Amino acid sequence: MTSTYLGNFLSIDLWHLICIIIIIIFQMFVIHFGMPMIKKIEVFAAPLLLLLGIILLGWAWVATRGSTESIFKASELLSQKSHIGFWTEFWPGLTAIVGFWATLALNIPDFTRFVRSQKDQILGQAMGMPTTMTLISFIGIIATSATIIVFGQAIWNPIDLIGKFKPSYFLVLPLLGLILATICCNMAENMVSSANDFSNLLPK
Questions:
Q1: In the chain, how many domains are there?
Q2: Residue 1's domain spans which residues?
Q3: In whole angstroms, what is the distance from residue 171 CA to residue 137 CA?
Q4: Which of 38, 39, 40, 49 is nearest to 158 (CA)?
Q5: How confident is the model at residue 16 (pLDDT cuts 50, 70, 90)?
Q6: Looking at the predicted structure, is the pLDDT value of residue 142 above 70?
Q7: 12 & 50 share domain
Q8: Claim to verify: residue 166 and residue 193 sit in the same structural domain
Q9: Is 38 exposed, middle or buried (0-12, 13-18, 19+ CB in 10 A)?
Q10: Residues 61 and 159 in one domain
Q11: pLDDT-based confidence at residue 1 (cuts at 50, 70, 90)
Q12: 108 and 76 part of one domain
């Protein structure tokens, strides 16, 4: 009864709601200890998430038997089947990227104010942002293209892709990675900024 009511009211079931509450409590626990704790988690998570991305890239290579030509052809065929022109795809894609980075553009001073000099923050962002985002985008393109060959359809959602992996115990590591990525992104992009706003409204 309760689960049905929650499903109608929040569009989620009771277990999803419990998971969300657990994640929120964990994030509040981390935020309570301030920026040093957030830094520790981000320093731990960043290389781990990159490693999981590289493992996904390795899966795409093995699953397609190392056929890079087939991977890129699959991506090209998918684009042709959509019957959408370049400029029709370009502007929504550009808007999505700008919208994604707009949050970080507003939040980045929350983190860069702790650096020793202006040169350090410029160098850090110039080295970190373009390289990692290019790598992650590349992994996403290759993995999605590989799913066309392996499963016969483009699976761009990581959760849907993980659900295809067998055996089931193999799902533990990627799911933990997704949870960690969600928590880290939410703290960096959403919670730190709002926490600073509330702190400034009520400094005591």
A1: 2
A2: 1-32
A3: 22
A4: 49
A5: confident
A6: yes
A7: no
A8: yes
A9: buried
A10: yes
A11: very low
A12: yes
pLDDT, residue 75, reads: 61
Q: Which amino acid would we find at residue 138?
A: F
Q: Which two tokens stand for residue 39?
A: 């830094």
Residues 21 and 50 occupy one common structural domain: no
What is this structure's pTM?
0.72
Same domain, 75 and 2: no
- For residue 143, how many other CB atoms are within 10 A of its CB? 20
Q: Are residues 127 and 150 in the same domain?
A: yes
Mean predicted lDDT score pLDDT of the chain:
80
User: Which residue bears the tokens 């890129």?
Assistant: 72
Q: How far apart are CA 187 and CA 193, in angstroms?
A: 9
pLDDT at residue 81 above 70? Answer: no
Q: Does the pLDDT value for residue 6 go beyond 70?
A: no
Cβ pair 106, 193 in contact under 8 A: yes
Contact of 115 with 124, CB cutoff 8 Å: yes
Same structural domain for residues 43 and 76? yes
What's the Cα-to-Cα distance from 21 to each of 27, 70, 75, 140, 191, rounded to whole Å? 10, 43, 38, 29, 15
CA 199, CA 193: separation in Å to the nearest integer?
Answer: 10
Cis peptide before 47 (omega within 30 of 0): no
d(CA 145, CA 147): 5
pLDDT of residue 107: 80
For the stretch 99-135, pLDDT in tens is: 877 777 778 888 888 888 888 888 888 888 888 888 8
